[in-house]
């Protein structure tokens, strides 16, 4: 029975496996990869692309000109197989000149980027028409709801790559729940786990998070809510490739399969832990010497003593809360490296740090304004904990080095990830006001001290240390990519 789905029992969960077909062509695939216009999406899509290219497959990585220019360098051994393709971004009222990624915009303007993104359908169609060899697969993001219908005109199958863990997709639920007209209508209803989660879990939002999360169900300038996009994607694609593995998420992966009822098929692609070696090649010019200063300082610290603080490239806190965070760090007396960026759209005369902070904490820690190589900092022996916004990519990077986490989720699914990390005793959340999300310096200092130095934090340090075996196990993570490639090969597009 060629090209049929069969269930294969592997370990504790059932993973769906595509049986090899006798007519299978094992030649290299041509895979088109098209992420949402956000670096938090483009970078994991690029990791997946590099993984496929290392196996000899050809990649056409699609984005817009300024985004392509800002991508990290592709390692030279595989660069010839990764074709970076710039599609021109249409102009849209409300979208500032030169803004091509979410990082270029304050959050309220992102809706205009979604609208402009929808205008990429035409250049995308032209690309498919002209692509040679004809692509075998298109791997795309939640945002490109127009890809499956265009791809089907060319008879090319589509896979949705979820940079979110399967727990997030489970919480969102089956396509029938991807609108507020489903079972949940109000933010309050997102503050408890949905009924389809069949095992004990704290996966739910706090009220202040739920208020922000439910915006994903609302129409915006583009006329499509984020979850309407996701609904169309789930209905239109053949595979859902999730950045996950059964060693960490077996229960969630099994539940996601059940929710989607094999339409589409769920395939974990592994955690795709990035390689420190490659990130070293990816040198931004250290024009101010700030990066050298951070590493010089880190080299002089006691092993495992430093907390690395980074809230991602897009997460934004109000200036008041950044100040509380700063004062909490100071109060904790724990050595720190803080990667701090002034968010897009913040007035230039706003003081992002509290008065006198840098003088008072001289010697205790360093604040790096601008870009710093996160992976290399996390890999440094002096670092012993990670204060994070719980984006899935950052969480993976932290656990790859066995760091226990201090959790300060900010938006999208970060609250859910924080709850799950706390359930698993890998991290501790900074206590926040349920209604408005505010927090105080004392709470920050207490959470940092517990995770970094106090005896009560030992179970967290121990559990996170053990998870390093899973998150940094290149061999088993590579097996997931191999399995994914087999799925792609078994269902590649017919040529000619
Ligand atoms: C949040 O609520 C708390 C308690 O009601 C209040 O003290 C605090 O000022 C509020 N913070 C913001 C930013 O509204
Ligand atoms: C999910 C999303 O992007 N929602 C935005 C829709 O537009 C309003 C402004 O009109 C923003 O406040 C929301 O964040």
TrEMBL record:
<keyword id="KW-0328">Glycosyltransferase</keyword>
<dbReference type="Pfam" id="PF00201">
    <property type="entry name" value="UDPGT"/>
</dbReference>
<comment type="similarity">
    <text>Belongs to the UDP-glycosyltransferase family.</text>
</comment>
<protein>
    <recommendedName>
        <fullName>Glycosyltransferase</fullName>
        <ecNumber>2.4.1.-</ecNumber>
    </recommendedName>
</protein>
<dbReference type="GO" id="GO:0035251">
    <property type="term" value="F:UDP-glucosyltransferase activity"/>
</dbReference>
<keyword id="KW-0808">Transferase</keyword>
<dbReference type="InterPro" id="IPR035595">
    <property type="entry name" value="UDP_glycos_trans_CS"/>
</dbReference>
<dbReference type="InterPro" id="IPR002213">
    <property type="entry name" value="UDP_glucos_trans"/>
</dbReference>
<dbReference type="InterPro" id="IPR050481">
    <property type="entry name" value="UDP-glycosyltransf_plant"/>
</dbReference>
